[in-house]
Amino acid sequence: MITERAMLAAIHISIWTAVKHDRKVSHEVASQHGAPVSAGRYNKQLLRGAGRLDDLRTLAGQIRQHCYKITLPWSDEGYRLLPAHFYFDLSARMCANLSRASRSR
Questions:
Q1: Where would I find the H helices in 1-105?
Q2: Distances (CA, A) of 99 to 53, 65, 102, 104, 105
């Protein structure tokens, strides 16, 4: 039976992007070029060159890719089919990566 061999899993990782929409510059550029304000969106990078934030983004991407590699798409809501024998391996990898990331602070 499938309920004994697999489970539904979903991964949601949120990371602060350190980017803020610069409305003033967006309006200035639009008015200088006679374009609608919606024609361009200019953003400020609040932590440009922050290596640790880049490392965190990289780690999040690696975790997502690993999850996608060992699961299959299941529904439009983002659930994926995870074989039961991968559950403990996935849990151990996530805990190890999170632990490593917190030690490097």
A1: 2-5, 23-32, 51-70, 84-103
A2: 16, 19, 5, 9, 11
Residue 91 has pLDDT above 90, yes or no: no
- Name residue, tokens 């809501």: 77
Mean pLDDT, the chain, as a whole number? 86
Asked if 11 and 77 count as a contact pair (C-beta separation under 8 A), the reply is no
- Which pTM does this prediction carry? 0.62
Contacts with 57 (C-beta within 8 Å, 6 or more apart), sequence order:
15
11-62 per-position pLDDT tens digit: 999 988 889 999 999 999 999 999 998 888 999 988 887 778 888 889 999 9
Backbone angle region of 26, left / alpha / beta, with phi > 0 → left and psi within -120 to 50 → alpha: alpha
**C-alpha span between 65 and 97 (Å, rounded):** 14
Q: In angstroms, rounded to a whole number, what is the distance separating the alpha carbons of residues 90 and 66? A: 8
Q: Cα–Cα–Cα angle for 75, 68, 45, nearest 5°?
A: 105
